[in-house]
Amino acid sequence: MAGFVGLLAVQGLLASGQDALTARALRRAIQAALPVVGGEVSDSAGVLLGSVIAARNAVGVAGMLTSMGVCTAPVARLAMASISMRLAEAAMEPICEPGMVRVVGSFASLARLLAAICAGGMLMTALCLGACLALAG
Question: Would the pTM of this model clear 0.70, i.e. be above it?
Answer without folding.
Answer: no
